[in-house]
Design brief:
The chain is mainly α. Helix content is about 45%, strand content about 5%.
Length: about 180
């Protein structure tokens, strides 16, 4: 019994030990609270889902979608394609670790593992990348295809915008024609 009293006396008389006990009790409290809370923590209101966007972009047009506009949409170009990264805004939006990719063609940055902003105003054909760098770009692109919505093409100089409304109307008409046959 004397040993227990000595241990308690040692713990309760040292300021460092009292501080450590306070931290331990706080962490235990957080663990219990999170279990009772379902691990959700404070709930943020759900952001309204933006309508799907389907169009092509020039480098200049893409710059408008860096997450700083009122709707907060974030678009990123990679390997000639544009993806809507808005649902990954905490990574690609303002303040995120990859915010420098937002509203830009990030292909070269992804190839070289560089997070500095790419302020090029011209289309980058990536022809000078090494095979390993190009493989890296293709790997990133395949991840984006799975995780984010494809919006359209990143246009080369002189390339025309695709009219996706016509394509969508044609797709709507096709099933009707098939039903008639």
């Amino acid at each position: 019994m004397a040993v227990v009293v000595d241990i308690l006396h040692e713990i309760l008389t040292s300021p460092m030990n009292i501080g450590l006990l306070a931290i331990i009790f706080y962490l235990i409290y957080k663990i219990i609270r999170d279990r009772n809370d379902g691990g959700r923590g404070p709930q943020k209101p759900a952001e309204p889902e933006l309508p799907k966007l389907k169009r092509d972009f020039t480098i200049e047009e893409l710059k408008e979608f860096d997450g700083n506009q009122p709707d907060g949409r974030v678009l990123v170009g990679v390997n000639g394609s544009v993806y809507d990264m808005t649902k990954g805004k905490r990574f690609y939006g303002p303040g995120g670790p990859y915010a420098s990719f937002a509203g830009r063609d990030a292909s070269r940055n992804l190839a070289t593992f560089n997070t500095e902003p790419n302020d090029k105003t011209e289309y980058d054909d990536l022809s000078d990348l090494t095979p390993a760098e190009m493989d890296s770009v293709l790997e990133w692109e395949s991840q984006f295809k799975v995780k984010y919505d494809y919006v359209g093409k990143l246009l080369r100089p002189g390339e025309k915008h695709t009219n996706y409304e016509e394509e969508q109307e044609n797709q709507k008409d096709e099933p009707e024609t098939k039903k008639e046959n």
